[in-house]
Design goal:
Number of domains: 1
Shape: globular
Number of strands: 2
Bound molecules: fe (ii) ion
């Protein structure tokens, strides 16, 4: 379904009202780690590399902002699936996390001398409804796709980035994102644990999820793997500031699917390995 575009300038501006105080309370209460470095030392690096890294954080700001609408819609699907209260609450928390990540990225852009504004289409793409599915299976399909698959790739790439990058300010800011993304990546596996009795009682839903995965893995590969490319030689500054090698990012996608996502889903009696091997578009 196509959605009419809504052009807007996304920023991390606050309202100037007491709502800000409530937002600060949320931030403090739910922060999973703190920071130690408050400023970014641009003079320590090649200025062009700083701009590349800053642009990456600006692009990330837009992606984080968009992720909010995925989880907020998924929370609605969890309501329809009559999921447990904690799962619904944490799904909403994850939507909120992505707004906090938007603010974190905006802070980084400003610290690196940029303007934290992104002109973007803010129209919300509707989450897949998987016509003909029960509400329970629909929620399971979308939870697996967004968390066990997409967020797990984000986690693996942030971990890889942290392994290499040395700038203290950017390491702190990356760790803030990673701390939440780990929860987001794990959510789907915990959700599957909660729904295992239901899956055992509904083998037709397990087959339906396997059919969906055959399609979903292929869509995910197109969306996240990136094109095949040769390894590039990065400068020490590029590595220090966390600029990725696209060939390495692609490799991480496949490693994550094959060694984390697929075996993780298979623990619940879902043949994700076959779906991965036979992945292709089914519609
Ligand atoms: Fe995020
Ligand atoms: Fe996330």
């Amino acid at each position: 379904m196509s959605v009419e575009p809504i052009e807007a300038l996304v920023t991390a501006a606050l309202s100037g009202t007491p709502i800000e105080k409530e937002y600060e309370l949320l931030k403090t209460g739910l922060a999973r780690c703190g920071t130690t470095a408050d400023t970014f030392d641009a003079a320590a690096y090649d200025p062009r590399t700083v701009v590349f890294a800053r642009d990456m954080w600006l692009a990330r700001m837009e992606v984080e902002h968009r992720s909010t609408s995925v989880f907020s819609q998924l929370a609605t699907q969890l309501m329809e699936a009559n999921a447990s209260l904690d799962c619904k609450a944490v799904m909403l928390r994850m939507a909120y996390d992505e707004l906090r990540h938007t603010e974190n990225c905006a802070d980084v852009v400003r610290a690196m001398g940029g303007v934290a504004e992104v002109p973007t289409n803010v129209a919300v793409a509707p989450l897949a409804v998987h016509r003909g599915c029960t509400p329970e299976e629909r929620a399971l399909r979308n939870v697996i796709y967004t968390t066990c698959m997409s967020e797990m790739v984000a986690v693996a790439r942030f971990v890889d980035s942290l392994d290499e990058m040395t700038d203290p300010y950017l390491r702190d800011r990356t760790r803030l994102l990673l701390a939440d993304e780990i929860l987001h990546g794990q959510f789907g596996f915990h959700y599957l644990t909660a729904w295992k009795p239901w899956l055992d009682a509904h083998p037709e839903a397990v087959r339906g999820i396997e059919r969906f995965l055959t399609h979903g893995f292929s869509v995910m590969e197109d969306a996240l793997a990136g094109p095949p490319t040769r390894p590039i030689v990065r400068t020490p500054d590029e590595i220090a500031l966390g600029l990725p090698d696209p060939s390495r990012a692609r490799d991480i996608f496949f490693q994550t699917m094959e060694h984390a996502t697929v075996p993780g889903i298979e623990r619940f009696g879902i043949d994700a390995g076959k779906a991965w091997r036979e992945r292709r578009k089914l519609v």
